[in-house]
Amino acid sequence: MKSLVVEDDFVSRIVLQKMLSAYGPCDVAVNGREAIEAYSLALNDGNPYELICLDIMMPEMDGKEALKKIRQLEKELGIHPVNEVKIFMITALDTPKDVVDAYYQGGCTAYLVKPIEKIHVAKALREATLI
Q1: Which of 27, 16, 28, 63 shows the shortest CA–CA distance to 71?
Q2: From 68-77, 89-98, 108-117, the region with the lowest mean pLDDT
Q3: Each residue of 78-102: b (16+ CB within 10 Å) or e?
């Protein structure tokens, strides 16, 4: 499973990268703009990501905006919804509005609240049929 961790906090980024590296190659980005660039490059190379973990609160472009732009790019490229990249929102924000916005307005696959625990990541990976 090829994954991308998008997180501006160094410690959170390293922890999540270590967790996901057990399942395959894992790249990192520090903001939403870098995430969209990495996603586009991977698509163009014919080796797309299967999972993107997006923090919500980041500089330059937050995770909500990046999620919307990635889903828009997939629509423009004619990628069928069943073939979309799985996107897990990883955040400290856990209000019902944030969760609803991420799922129903953004189209995320899973919503995980920090601090991230390995057991919750593995469960979300199984539910998304990535492992």
Answers
A1: 63
A2: 89-98
A3: eeeeeeebbbbbbbebeeeebbebb
If residue 50 lies in a helix (H) or strand (E), which one and from where to where? none
Query: 115 preceded by cis ω (within 30°)?
Result: yes
pLDDT, one tens digit per residue, over 68-83 is 999 999 999 999 989 9
Is the pTM higher than 0.85? The answer reads yes
Angstrom distance (rounded) from CA 86 to CA 84: 6
Show Cβ contacts of residue 36 under 8 Å, excluding neighbours closer than 6 positions.
61, 66, 69, 70, 73
What pLDDT, on a 0 to 100 scale, did the predictor assign at position 93? 75
Instruction: State which amino acid sits at residue 15.
Output: V
Give me the phi and psi of 73, to 5 degrees please.
-60, -40
